[in-house]
Structures are given as C-alpha cells and as structure tokens.
Amino acid sequence: MSGAVLVAVAAAIGNLLQGWDNATIAGAVLYIKKEFHLESNPSMEGLIVAMSLIGATLITTWSGGVADWLGRRPMLILSSVLYFVGSLVMLWSPNVYVLLLGRLLDGFGVGLVVTLVPIYISETAPPEIRGLLNTLPQFTGSGGMFLSYCMVFGMSLMPSPSWRLMLGVLFVPSLVFFFLTIFFLPESPRWLVSKGRMLEAKRVLQRLRGREDVSGEMALLVEGLGIGGETTIEEYIIGPADDVANDLDIAVDKDQIKLYGAEEGLSWVARPVKGGSTVSVLSRHGSTMSRRQGSLVDPLVTLFGSVHEKMPETGSMRSALFPHFGSMFSVGGNQTRNEEWDEENLVGEGEDYPTDRGEDSDDDLHSPLISRQTTSMEKDMHSGHGPLSTFRHGSQVQGAHGEGGGAGSMGIGGGWQVAWKWTEREDESGQKEGGFKRIYLHQEGFPGSRRGSIVSLPGGEGTGEAEFVQASALVSQPALYSKDLLREHTIGPAMVHPSETVKGSLWHDLQDPGVKRALFVGVGLQILQQFSGINGVLYYTPQILEQAGVGILLSNLGISSSSSSLLISALTTFVMLPAIAVAMRLMDLSGRRTLLLTTIPILIASLIVLVISNLVHMNSIVHAVLSTVSVVLYFCFFVMGFGPTPNILCSEIFPTRVRGICIAICALTFWICDIIVTYSLPVLLKSIGLAGVFGMYAVVCCISWAFVYLEVPETKGMPLEVITEFFSVGARQAEAEKNN
C-alpha cells in the first residue's frame, strides 16, 4: 500500500500550505497595519485577514462541479498555481489593494485544497487505512501552522521584520506542491472510470496497490457509478457444490445459485438462508427496526453498526472468509478452474471500448468480466439481451498472473468481495427470463457460534470434511445492467461502456434518498463543528497563557509582546501534533463514530471548566492552571475527533457521480459557518461575555454528541461504494417506515 500512502502524503502538502498561510497572516498583520497606517482603520485590517476566507468561499461554490467534470488532479494543479501566484503578488504588494488581490488568489488555492484533497485521498486510499490517510491533511495543516509560526517568530526578532517576506516565502512550498501534482500525483481511478478511461484507471490502481491484479477493485469502481436502485440484503451459505451440506437454515435446492468472479474459471455455489432476502435480515440483530422499538437512533446508524458487529472475532480486515485476499471464498481448496475458453470469448479480443480520447486502449486486457463456466447450470444462461459470458467492458478483468498463475483478487477491501449471480424463472407464457445481480459479500462473525467462521460438516461420501461460510450480501442491479441502459442498448450489457452510466440530470441524482441522507449528515457535521467553539478557544488562548504567566516569563527573556504572542501560538499548535498522530492511529481501529462519541464529552467538560473559571472568583494561579489545562485538553481532543472527522466522513458517504458537488456543498457550509462564527465572536463577547460564549459552545457540543449518536454511522474499513449502497438501503428503509 506504499503507493497510496505516498500519494496521500503528497496531496496533503496542499493542506500544509493552508496552515502555513493561516499562521503567516496572523503574524504579518501586526506589521502590515503599521506600514499602511491601519490602526485607525480596523475594517481594512479585518478585510486583509478575511480576504483569503472570502476567496475560499467563492471558489468552493463551483469547485466540486468542475472537479467532477475535469478531474481531481487538474484542480489540485490549479490550486498549487494559485498558491504560487498569490504568494508572489503578496511578496510584491506596493499597496494595500495589490495585497488584497494576492490574499484573494491565495484564498482560491485554500478553497480548492480544502474541497478536493479529502476527495482525492478517499478515492485513492485502500479502505483499511483510508481513515489514517485522510487524517494526514489535519496533521500537515497543523504542521504547516507550527513551521510558519516558528518562521515568523524568528523574523520578528530581526531589527526590521519584513511582512512581505513573511507572506511571499509561501512560494517555496507552493512550488514543491506544484511539481508533486504535475509529476507524481495520478488522476483518481474512480474519476477515470466514470469517464470511461479504463486502461488509465487500471494502471493507476496497479501503482497504488502495488500489484498487477486489480480485477475486483476495477469491478467495484464501475459498480459505484450507479446511484439509487433497489438494493436488498441477503444471507448466503457459501461453499463448493459438493460441500454445502443439508442444513435446517438452508433453503431448498431449487434456490441454489452460482456466484461469479471477474476472473477465468472462478465461481462458487451459494444457497440463501430462509427469510434472508430483505432488510429484515439485519433487523434480527436489532438494526433497522430500532425506531419501531421506540429508539430515536436512525436505522441507518444501526444498519452500519450491524456490519461491524458481524466482523470476525480476530478483527482482521482479511477475515477467514478470504484468507489469501485472493480468489473468491478460498475455502475447501478443491475448486476446479476451467482454463478452456470458448470461441465466443476469444473473438474480437482487443476490440474493447475506446477511451474518451478515442483510443482503443484496452487491447491488452484479455479476460471477460464474468468468466464462462462449463457446467450444466450455464447452458440456458442467455437472455434477450445477450449472453452472460460476454458481459464485459474491457477493464474489469484480471491482470497478469505471473509465472505461478496465482488466483486474482476479487477483494475490494475491508473483508468485502464483489461477485455476480444469474437467476432465472419462467413467466406466464412459459418463456425463461433471467435476472443479473451484483453482490457485495461480507463474512458474518459471531463469537461462539456457527456464524462467521469456517465450519466443518460431515462430507457425506467424500473423505475428510466439507467447509462453508455464512455471509451477508448487498444485492442490486449492476451499473451496466440497469433498465434504462437496457432500453438504449438492446444487445445487452456486453456492449455498454461504463461512461454510458454517467448520464441524467444532476438535480435528479441529488434527489436520490441516499444522497439526501448523506448530505444531511455531512452538512450537519460541518455546521456543528464550526459552532463547537474552536475559533473562540483559539481567540482566547493568548489571553489565558498571558494570565498563566507565560508572557511575563518571555518578557524577562527580552522577547517583545508581538514576538511572545507568535511563540505562544507556535507552542499551542505544537501541542496538537501528537494528538493528531494518535487520531491517525485510532481512526481505522476505533472508527470515526467512536472517536467523535468519546472526544466530544471532553470538549464539553473543558468548556464547562472555562465557564466556571470565568464566573467564580478564585485565586489567580488556580484560575490560570484550570484555564490552561482546559484549553490544552480542548485542543488535543478537538484535533483527535471533531477536527478531521467531518471532512473524512464527507469524503466517504457520497456516490462517485456526485461526490465532487456534494463535498463542495459541505465545504461551502463550512466556510459560511466559519465567517459567521468569526465575525459574531466580538459581538457575542460584548453582549454575553466570555463565560456566556463558552457556555453556548458547550450547549452546541452537547447537541453535536446527540447528533452523532443518533444520525452518524460508522464507516471504518468499508469500500466507498459499499458505504453509499448502505446509505441508499437505509434511506429507503427509513422512508418506508415513515410512510407506514
């Protein structure tokens, strides 16, 4: 996974520039107002500081839509250019108006980075470490602030500090970021698939994953192009045909189905568990029926929670169901692989779909999406829309196996695998009609029970023992097999290019229940984060540390008040870094939801202590100690939970087709709330005082905890496409309950 890690680190350099800019202007403005005589014009001073915020807000209004159109990488390149040009303009700045222009350009770069870096990292990172990598922007942003404060502090000790140099030195790291975006960062494979550039997407995935075979993930990316659709949750007993023993929980043989992987000769027999064809499967474990039982918790939350409860006891992302992270359900070991290809699959190999550049670029991919199986089950596997064996699109195939001929991986991360099934029935006229379904499979795990482990049963006449596993499945129409596409392409999905799925009205996509539900969660988190008090605590920190005697200590060392404030800010930022490092470790272990639920109470307690210390008359030393400890705890636990988590969740919960525009909506909410909080703080301080402000923030944090507990699901370790599928299922289930 080193490729994905390095790419995420390179992308997070953009957030380092954001943190660098935020800290630099805080120090440079002390000298700007002296040169331009702004002491009597505080509105202009405030405009200089806020111009970056205004620029970020303006560019966010269209950045998401353009990123969905042009790609993630071009927008990151543009952000580096804006950083670079803006820094040079600020370095020149003969007057305050040119300085404002430079700050505006710099703000444009900030807005693009805040919106696009989380998207980019989420779309390139493996599910197992996506939380860790998406916490990198928080770490690099705080690191950039620390480095910038140290630089500005050092310059402030000079006889005549230059604010132009403080602001203009940003061109050095921005130039580094520019070269990284040009020569190192690839385009997002999910965006490439959405545009039909399959070969490029395959090569990028091979680089990011460090392996040749990316069949499963390529299949996943195409399936992720769909929005909405009817999805059911089913349970299967899975194993080789000879090894699935009769069981009271297993449906009769006529319900037996065969699952197919995306590689040659790969299939498996599955039998559905009785009563396992609807969302009620997970309801048995107390998930989607929570509201009917009187609970206020959203069904979506408990639906996600049931998945994590079913993880195998070992907790490993590579569960016993997929021990080698390789071919589908590697249990039994006696699966016969058919190496013979029929003529149907050999004809026209290399004549795959061209990319949007007009190239016939997939001619080196020589395997169909669904491999042909020479068993009696497939003799009739044809429908009026074309044979199943030719359902392919040039990209969803295995890579080179190497000399050993090892099995390709159908794993899509987090213990999930993707497969397909074909079912058929007779209509009223006696004609056979088939149904083609896509399945996301996940092993169930319950300690001390048959569920979730590889279970051995008597093998009947055979020697040894038979093995099978129980798995939950999200079952839906494949992205290339939707009713709309079949009406347009009557010859069948074999002739449908993935880019054909990305059609329709953007407004229609945004009206999908799953998308609306995800927007509710994302926008709600952004609003609550901004009103949880971080800006107020940052504003108050220098005063608290001054009361603690830090200012007196620094003045005794011969450091001026301006330099002291910069050094205090640098120390405050430095304290955050170890806490963020801990969050990086816990984000994929404990999970996003758990981190929020455990850190927000610490924020509430810290704010309450600050309220009490400002209302109750006490010894100055006691007051300083209480205030200092409360502020340090607030900072540390904020950057562990409420700091990075909203952006991480927002980058995970939206479908590929609308991810850019939806995250732009969330980012726009962030910037608008940031402006409101920043400019309302002085007014609130005058009207209700410091204790009243912190009390209000504590109330917002209480509301935030309740919102997370009731509405925010746990997404750790799950592929993005599976997350959006669960949002669709949960939203439709909630609507059904509401209507009933």
From TrEMBL:
Domain annotation Major facilitator superfamily (MFS) profile: ranges: 7-716
Localisation per UniProt entry: Vacuole membrane
Protein's name in the database: Major facilitator superfamily (MFS) profile domain-containing protein
Family according to the record: Belongs to the major facilitator superfamily. Sugar transporter (TC 2.A.1.1) family.
Any GO BP annotation: transmembrane transport
Natural source organism: Brassica campestris (Field mustard)
Bias (Acidic residues) ranges: 340-363
Any one of the GO CC terms: membrane
GO molecular function, one term: transmembrane transporter activity
Region Disordered, residue ranges: 333-368
